[in-house]
Amino acid sequence: MDGKKVKRLDKSIQSLMEMLRDYAHNRLMKIRNGYRGYKLFDIDKSHKKVTKLTFHWLKIMMRKESSGAFNQPPGLISMR
């Protein structure tokens, strides 16, 4: 209704239902075409980052831990 005041309730309900139909249709088309929202994109990006960690990086982190660069929480078993 383009921001206009509507006196008739039936026209306003019809307009709202058309808007919701169009929104749902557009969303379904995006999902069908492989669109991923920004939240899922961020999750995938961080997951790929973690899976690319190498043994070399792990050795560096263990050296930092053993040198006292990181404070180890109580109850955590160290891997020295």
Task: Briefly summarize what is shown.
The chain is mainly α and 80 residues long.
Task: List its traits.
3 helices; mainly alpha
Structural class: mainly alpha
Shape, principal axes of CA atoms: rod-shaped
**How is the main sheet built?**
none
**Rg of Cα set:** 27 Å
Order of helices and strands: HHH
SS field, number of helical segments? 3
E-strand count: 0
Helix share of residues?
A: 55-70%
State the distance separating the first and last CA atoms: 68 Å
Strand content: under 5%
Low-confidence segments? none
Average per-residue pLDDT, rounded, comes to 80
Note down, in words, how this protein is organized.
By secondary structure, the protein is mostly helical. Helix content is 62%, strand content 0%. The protein contains 3 helices and no strands. It has helices spanning 9-32, 38-51, 55-66. The longest helix has 24 residues, at 9-32. The mean pLDDT is 80.
Could you outline the blueprint of secondary structure elements for this entry?
Blueprint: H1 9-32, H2 38-51, H3 55-66
